[in-house]
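Can you make up a protein sequence with its backbone structure tokens?

===
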Amino acid sequence: MHKTRLAGLKNARSVDGGAIVSRMSLTLTTRQGEGCVIVEASGRLAAGESSTQLRDLVKRLTAEGARSFVFNLAGVSYMDSAGLGLLLSIYATVRAGGGDVKLTNIGDRVKDLLKMTKLSEVFQIFEDENLALAAVKQQ
């Protein structure tokens, strides 16, 4: 696992070498995969602090050299338009930098939202994390 620095983040702690960032409505855990950073999200990805938290985390990780991300959204119970917009913004930024973004373990509510907005045609979505990691390796 990759140890991620958490300097400057309120209510942050590091466990087992990965980063865990928790701010009331959203918990983010990062770990190093082969050729990518895996970001596990749990809670609500909505307008406000949770969106800011994810944006800041990805910004810091890309500044540290991360180029490809697998977002494991198994624990995301709710996502609003701000959360969708943020995922799209992260996707565009990472792709412009030569990287890639893959989504995995998406719950039914979030999956329906991605389909309804046609963003399911933009993102590569995988039923399980191992399939997403295999796709990263093939790039």
